Each structure stands twice: as C-alpha cells, then as structure tokens.
Amino acid sequence: MKLDELADALKLTRLTPSLDVGEVDVTEGYVSDLLSDVLANSQEGAVLVTVQVHMNVIAVAVHAGLAAVIFAAGRSPDKLVLDKAVEEGVSLFVSDNSAFEIAGRLYNLGIKGHA
Predict the structure, then answer these.
(1) CA torsion 101→105→111→113, rounded to 10°?
(2) What is the pLDDT tens value at each position of the chain, 115 positions in all?
(3) Is 22 domain-assigned?
(4) Which CATH number does the domain housing residue 46 bear?
(5) Which domain holds residue 22?
(6) I need a surface site. Which of 1, 2, 17, 72 has the fewest CB within 10 A?
(7) Pairing of β 68-71 and β 91-94
(8) Does some domain include residue 113?
(9) Residue 25 lies in a domain
(10) What is the distance between the alpha carbons of residues 105 and 44, in angstroms, rounded to a whole number?
C-alpha cells in the first residue's frame, strides 16, 4: 500500500507536509515504544506506531529505513524533531487514536507485521 493511501484511510494528520509520500510503499507495520526493539526487529519499509516523540525516533527511523512514523494518542514532537525529520526525509504523522487502535486499523487495511 502507498503511504498516502494509508494516511488517508487512517485519517492521519501529516506533520511533514513538505515530504512527498505518494510513491512510498509501506511493507508492514510495527508497534513499539522501545527504540532498541525497533532497530533490532523492524523491517525496511515498515511504518512505526509509537508514543515516543523525541529526536531518537528520527535517528531510528533513518537507520531502520522506515517508511514513516505514526505518533499515537495525539502526541506530537516539537519543532526541532519535525525539522530534523524533514532534513532526513522521514515522514511523520499523528493520530488521536491509541497505538492499539492504529495497529488494528493497519491490520484491517492489509498491513501486517512480520513473523
């Protein structure tokens, strides 16, 4: 699924609107607030759902090759984090829904996790 389609389907708010997401493929979903877990176990092209909103999320997203990060529960990073995300080309979104709800909706859209 393309990232822009996923964002529309989940009614996500784009935090990095200057980044083009139209051709970005989402390969799977990953939900974790433990960033070392994301580094060790997520796959390239995954979309991460988390409540962590600090700068390390951007570094992990770049290193892991994530397609995007969705911040759950209405949490949103500060301007420094947003600016770094744009600089690094990491698409960020926010949802008022819980991480659990977002994960379920991703699954219903056909976005699965890896075994």
Answers:
(1) 20
(2) 999 999 999 999 999 999 998 899 999 999 999 999 999 999 999 999 999 999 999 999 999 999 999 999 999 999 999 999 999 999 999 999 999 999 999 999 999 997 6
(3) yes
(4) 3.40.1390.20
(5) 3-108
(6) 17
(7) parallel
(8) no
(9) yes
(10) 20
